[in-house]
Amino acid sequence: MTIDASRGVQAPPELVQLLTPEGERVEHPDYDIDLTPEEIRGLYRDLVLVRRIDLEAVALQRQGELGIWASLLGQEAAQIGSGRALTDADMAFPTYREHGVAWCRDVDPVKLLGLFRGVNHGGWDPVEHNFHLYTIVIGSQTLHAVGYAMGIQRDGAEAAAIVYFGDGATSQGDVNESFIWASVFNAPVVFFCQNNQWAISEPLEKQSRIPLYRRASGFGFPGIRVDGNDVFACLAVTRQALRNAREGNGPTLIEAYTYRMGAHTTSDDPTRYRVADELEAWKLKDPIERLKAYLFKNQLADQAYFEAIDAEADALGRDVRKRCLEMPDPDPLAIFDHVYAHRHPLMEEEREQFAAYLASFEGSEGR
Amino acid sequence: MTTLTLAKAINEGLRRAMEDDPKVLIMGEDVGKLGGVFRVTDGLQKDFGELRVIDTPLAESGIVGTAIGLALRGYRPVCEIQFDGFVFPAADQIITQLAKMPLRSLGALKLPVVVRIPCGGGIGAVEHHSESPEAYFTHTAGLRVVACSNPADAYVMIQQAIRCDDPVIFFEPKRRYWEKAEVDTSPEAAAGWPDLHTARVVRPGGDVTVLAYGPMVRTCLEAATAAEEDGRSVEVIDLRSLNPLDTALVTDSVRRTGRCVIVHEAPVYSGFGAELAARITESCFYHLEAPVLRVGGFSTPYPPSKLEEHYLPDLDRVLDAVDRCFAY
């Protein structure tokens, strides 16, 4: 008996690409994008800055300042392209790796670090930024996004929800349920799956026998595979999908085909399960290098511009580091805060007892 | 005053809540045209439309997960879980998301979601239709857990649960759905409603305190009547709220009587009664004449219905425990 699912017959997948790894602009019959030089430089700046934030966070973890960090390295274009497609009224539901989308939603990067430093479980106001809290249980947020989108429908609002998840999440029941809900209720939601090829140590073939974007057809809505390292294509495809959602044309599944260049998190060791050649091949498809080549070749930016962006990135990195180290430890009694919206006798009882216990050590050594 | 069954009382409470607040939604399996398998939502879709009374796909995690999303958008969803044993597919969303998201947001988000669960046995049902899963939820911080026992409370408590800004798990005693009582549905009566999280002495007595909730309240009242014939004065308390617990009412009673029996349908082992017994022992130690005793289901899966009369606590098992209390 064989359990090799790759023996199944598959048609070659289509990939929407507008910018090749070499930085050449290409046409696509269904998707195009018209950006000003300023907008293109803005995308480049976004990509470089979020990579720098990520690099600083990895370093902070290595130095013991963060408990863990989930790096977005390699996925910058997927996140910036889709994140910049959102209007202020749209609502984004992230996993725990969407630092680039958080950047697009004006969430202070230092607020992302709180969760990984262990001072809170999520320190930003989701309503202020229309960027929900990071969800750690894989795939749970897809249902929240669909429910939110059903609320948008009921409000008659000009908005859509977008929900981020990975290739591994597509195996979760909640993700499949969210596809069903979105489909039967025609919810204004965009499912943005970053297929970074690896769910910790498990390659895509452990999750799916078919290309992920094709799952959508079984649920009754369109699925599109986009070059996840091409910021133009991610922006164009997401914009279109969001527009369709807002106009009442229902959900879309976007599979952003990309690669997790780093470890799953700083606790992971990818050398145990993947070969170096694969990493080298994907390095040639780097999202930042291809946009830099495009800008350079088309004389949209010069060396001085790139140096200025690098300097800005370094300053941002220093600022993030400084403010991370300044983050105060929470008060022990904060354990009892915000568990309930209304007063709750058990919270009050235990808080009082614990406060008295802590007070009993006052003046003694070792506390 | 109107005479209503417990099911109809919840229906009227839901109707009132939907009239009072256009953000209140009902969602679940078969809640629309059918009115729910127990008819608790009967007629609501006809009167409030399909946008507010939503027949959902058949997946419980999806019901609660999308209810969370609707709550994030400002709605107040009331989810119906068709039977107690079907809440487990939704347990992940309830425990990891519904209960914890407000804390995760440092108070920026509120999740006013009610999860209604018909619970308990006694209706001759097949497996997964007779369970009492309350302890899973009382053990989960961030949830409020209540259990109504009679039509008048059911009418009031469902409205209070919907108004609450915290998630509420709302247990309904399914074998009592068809029991009738007088319910004051006049708007003026609302001023006199007790707080959602208060317990109530439903029968005063001086010799022993019996604590119950949901379907067991009536059983304990019947036991108290029978005990009276033996000359024992049993005080019966309907807890109504399991989290938070009205500790003061319970301890006041046990300090007076010196004896306590706890009754629930759920298995005794690690059941909600264990928390009650521990708390009472801690707070009433010098007043107790006997150990706190528990009566409940056996520590087995719920049996086939031909055996459920042996599994479920009944009048005699309650009286037996009362008797054992006096053996000390």
From TrEMBL, chain A:
Boundaries of every Dehydrogenase E1 component domain copy: 48-316
Superkingdom, taxonomy of origin: Bacteria
Keywords for the protein's UniProt record, in alphabetical order: Oxidoreductase, Pyruvate, Thiamine pyrophosphate
InterPro entries: Alpha-ketoacid_DH_E1_comp, DH_E1, PdhA/BkdA, THDP-binding
GO biological process: branched-chain amino acid catabolic process
E.C. designation(s): 1.2.4.1
PANTHER family the UniProt entry points to: 2-OXOISOVALERATE DEHYDROGENASE SUBUNIT ALPHA, MITOCHONDRIAL
Protein name: Pyruvate dehydrogenase E1 component alpha subunit
TrEMBL record, chain B:
GO BP: branched-chain amino acid catabolic process; response to nutrient
SMART domains according to UniProt: Transket_pyr
GO MF term list: branched-chain 2-oxo acid dehydrogenase activity; magnesium ion binding
Keywords, sorted A to Z: Oxidoreductase, Pyruvate
Domain Transketolase-like pyrimidine-binding: 4-179
EC number(s) recorded for this UniProt protein: 1.2.4.4
InterPro entries recorded: THDP-binding, Transketo_C/PFOR_II, Transketolase-like_Pyr-bd, Transketolase_C
Required cofactor names: thiamine diphosphate
Pfam families (alphabetical): Transket_pyr, Transketolase_C
Broad class of enzyme this protein falls into: oxidoreductase
SUPFAM superfamilies hit by this protein: Thiamin diphosphate-binding fold (THDP-binding), TK C-terminal domain-like
PANTHER family in UniProt: 2-OXOISOVALERATE DEHYDROGENASE SUBUNIT BETA, MITOCHONDRIAL (PTHR42980:SF1), 2-OXOISOVALERATE DEHYDROGENASE SUBUNIT BETA-RELATED (PTHR42980)
Protein name: 3-methyl-2-oxobutanoate dehydrogenase (2-methylpropanoyl-transferring)
Organism of derivation: Thermocatellispora tengchongensis
